[in-house]
Amino acid sequence: MEQTRLERLYDRECFQEQAQSLLELLGTHLDQTQSGTQEKVLNWNKPENELQFWKDFARQADKGFTGSSLTDFFVNTLSHTIHTHHPRYVGHQVTSPAPPTTLTAMLGALLNNGMAIYEMGMAPTALERIVTDRLCEKIGYDQNSRGLLTSGGTLANLTALLMARQSRVSYDAWQEGLQNQLGILVSEEAHYCVDRAAKIMGLGEAGILSVPVTKDYAMDTNALKEVYQKAKAEGIEVFALVGSAPSTATGVYDPLEEQAAFAKEYGLWFHVDAAHGGAAIFSEDYKYLMKGAEQADSVVIDGHKMMLMPTLTTALLYKNGQDGQQTFSQKASYLLEDTTEEDWYNGAKRTFECTKTMTSLHWYLLMELYGIEVFDEYVTRQYDLGRSFAEQIQADPDFELGLQPQSNIVCFRYVKEDTTEEELNRLNAQIRQKALETGRFYLVQTRLKEKQFLRCTLMNPFTTPEHLQELLAHLRP
Ligand SMILES: Cc1ncc(COP(=O)(O)O)c(C=O)c1O
């Protein structure tokens, strides 16, 4: 008897065949990208053309997976996407995921345990506790600390600020709504999601107390007191200070110890947005950059950045486990029973999300089964590479370094004698656009103090100084 469409969709043999064909394709993809033999990191296509391509593809495909359309879909997806495993991928902060973590992604997707309550994800809940405990320990927290995993740094920062508000504001803003103007202190170089989180929380522009940076792009802690006192004088109830570790555009870490001391003196919640560089806690050579995070009330670390995992997974670690129980004091009686014991195993009580992805599988696989030494190796290698790339730039008269890199984020620009700043900005924007369209390398751009810079984040564990030398030659107009 012929299978119905639904039966075919769930057919075990069919699934295994498809999976094998995808595995073959991914194996070849890894060969060609990791070795750098594939010519391009991305085949640039204009948005309208890309849209049309996929509309046409759907129109022509065999429906119901009866023909080769699924394999064609895989093949086309590969050729129409950016290749993070290519050593000439030196652009954004999304990592080249360790291939075994794509298997845990598949496992999690098929099992689809929603995790909001314990029985909807027993294993991933236990794994989450193990890995967050381990991260807390590496940060330097004690036994009272706890953590959770959530979908992305943006959501984790929002959750941390909600936790901060419940802990430090003089009334219950979650239940009563805002009764006065609240404010957070944050560097002008912080990731825009902090600004967004504050606005979601109803703080408005007036609640974002922007602290200037020094000439080295770290928060100017000398200016901190002035900004704080001005806000207080205006009647703003300041409840949190956010540090960046590092900030996104420049890769510069804020002086966390000084920030921690300030927060302590004024009774503020100290939150460290270490979405990018929190993994430095694993690096023997670079853990000094995270010094002070052990005094923070909360720290955010992205798994899909410097922890080699696929998108989207973030750890939010907090010093006092009880703070996590108070963030969302609302009731959802069908899910959440009131209890006096610390039911760490009912995740929805502490996370913004109800249903969430089983991403603890990736963390456990890498941290507990593979071994945390791999993060020391990775972070140290990439941060060292940032420093050596800076030396290459400084040795080349056609390029100028934006600032000394502290991490694997390097900002630089093409320079030419007798050229105005305006013209240099235009030239560098053109260089970036040409690189994007050529597709041999992928890098990004940023503005620092009105100057247009090219920006590399050295995420790929196979990028070498030779690739970066070639990049400079490639960019020269
Ligand atoms: C410092 C910092 N915080 C937060 C984020 C946002 O994280 P996500 O993209 O995981 O939401 C980023 C992303 O680049 C970042 O660099």
From TrEMBL:
Keywords: Decarboxylase, Lyase, Pyridoxal phosphate. Its cofactor is pyridoxal 5'-phosphate. InterPro entries: PyrdxlP-dep_de-COase, PyrdxlP-dep_Trfase, PyrdxlP-dep_Trfase_major. GO terms for molecular function: carboxy-lyase activity; pyridoxal phosphate binding. The keyword Lyase applies. One of its GO terms (cellular component) is cytoplasm. The modification N6-(pyridoxal phosphate)lysine is found at residue 305. One of its GO terms (biological process) is carboxylic acid metabolic process. Belongs to the group II decarboxylase family. This is Pyridoxal-dependent decarboxylase. It comes from Aureicoccus marinus.
